[in-house]
Amino acid sequence: MPRDDELASRPYITKEDLKGKPLIVSEQxxxxxxxxxxxxxxxxxxxxxxxxxxxxxxxSRGMGYALTIEGIYGAHENLVFVPLEPSFRLxxxxxxxxxxxxxxxxxxxIELVKRCHxx
Length: 119
Hints:
Layout: H1 15-18, E1 23-26, H2 27-31, E2 45-49, H3 52-60, E3 65-66, H4 104-118
Parallel strand pairs: 1-2, 1-3
C-alpha cells in the first residue's frame, strides 16, 4: 500500500481491515483459490497481476491494495508492506525452458534453491 495510507502504520492487517476495500491480487493465487478467506468475494478484486511490478503502479495510483509476498515491492519506493494476521504461506514455483543452457551464476542459484528446498 502507499506509505501515506491509513493502514500503512499498522503492525499487521486483518481480514476485517480489508473488508470492502478493492484488492489487487496475483492471477495465479486467485485461480488456484490460494487466498482463501482473505478475498471476501470476487467482486472485491478490482485487478489481477502476473508481475508485481505492474501491480505496484496500480497501488501507487490508489486503485487498491495489493496482496503479495514480502520484499517483492522493492522497485516502488512509495509503497510499504504490512503483513497479514493471521499469516499464511503460498507455494512458489521456479521454471525455465527445457534443455536451457545456464550460466555459472544460474547453476549456483539453482543449486542453492535445491539445497534450501531439501531442508
